[in-house]
Design a protein that fits this description.
The protein is an alpha+beta fold. The chain contains eight helices and nine strands. The chain has a domain of about 160 residues: Transferase(Phosphotransferase), domain 1 (Orthogonal Bundle).
């Protein structure tokens, strides 16, 4: 097929030889199957912010830093240059996360190049060499569901030990690859990944990621529906006791201590005051 305009630059640079077909169009990107020499790979074209249907981006970009101080100031002020810099940071976030997680042993697609807003990476395939299916397109036996859930909980732990929370993990962004005749879950779609220690929403996102896995696989293995891995994982992480070798139970005893409502309200009031002060500083900085 004719190369889309966004891929033509990669063809001109010799990074891609031919575009085979469009693989999918999602809420944040379009993915194409491409040929690079003797290899078949996929090219992910990120949509512009105005075209993305992905919401709540502010939760995911909180505390993301750029090395260039001019870019950081422009992003804080919301200038045109700042918006462009913020968009570039959003697009490169997945590349950074993929390299970081691959280095930590998490099964994610291997990234090869990132050029002009296009990520060139491994095409994850099934036993026939075709694009691997997503989990939501596959039915499992109870035993298979338990095994894949166990594997993915291990991947969540491995990611957290690397300081990363996926933030949008579900059956829709996990592929089931064939590797040496075995079905292996591969985690995809990481531009919304957050830093576990630097994002105030990281705990909530991790709990949601784990709950999504529980609810999906619980359709095939009902015993998973009563598990409580998310709070257990986060509690161990906060205590500095979480490692890739940690044996999890799937149970978590919540504190039954009385809540100090006055203290909670003070925290809320302080947070509101800090937010108001921050907004005022940003407004003053943006005023000529």
């Amino acid at each position: 097929m004719k190369a889309p305009p966004r891929l033509q630059a990669l063809v001109d640079e010799g990074l891609i030889d031919t575009v085979v077909r469009q693989l999918m169009s999602g809420k944040e990107a379009m993915v194409y199957v491409v040929r690079c020499g003797d290899d078949t790979r996929c090219a992910k074209i990120y949509k512009e912010a105005t075209q993305r249907s992905f919401r709540q981006a502010v939760d995911y970009t909180e505390n993301r830093k750029v090395k260039n101080s001019r870019q950081a100031r422009a992003m804080a002020k919301g200038t045109k240059f700042g918006r462009q810099a913020q968009e570039a940071a959003w697009q490169s976030a997945e590349v950074d996360a993929l390299y970081r997680l691959a280095g930590a042993g998490v099964r994610v697609p291997q990234p090869y190049n990132f050029y002009e807003g296009v990520l060139l990476m491994e095409l994850v395939t099934d036993a026939h060499g075709d694009a691997a299916p997503r989990l939501n397109d596959v039915a499992f036996t109870s035993q298979q569901a338990l095994q894949h859930h166990r594997t993915l909980i291990g991947e969540v732990v491995r990611m957290l030990c690397a300081g990363v929370v996926h933030g949008d993990l579900s059956e829709f962004n996990i592929l089931l690859a064939d590797e040496a005749g075995q079905d292996v879950p591969v985690i995809i779609d990481l531009p919304q990944a957050v830093d576990a220690a630097g994002n105030n929403h990281a705990q909530r996102m991790l709990l949601r990621d784990v709950a999504n896995l529980r609810d999906f696989f619980g359709q095939f293995a009902s015993e998973l529906l009563g598990s409580d891995y998310g709070p257990e994982i986060w509690s161990l992480y906060q205590q500095g006791l979480l490692s890739q070798d940690t044996v999890l139970t799937g149970h978590f005893d919540r504190s039954r201590a009385d809540v100090d409502l006055s203290a909670v309200m003070r925290e809320i009031d302080d947070a509101r005051a800090e937010d108001a002060a921050r907004r005022l500083r940003m407004q003053q900085a943006a005023t000529p």
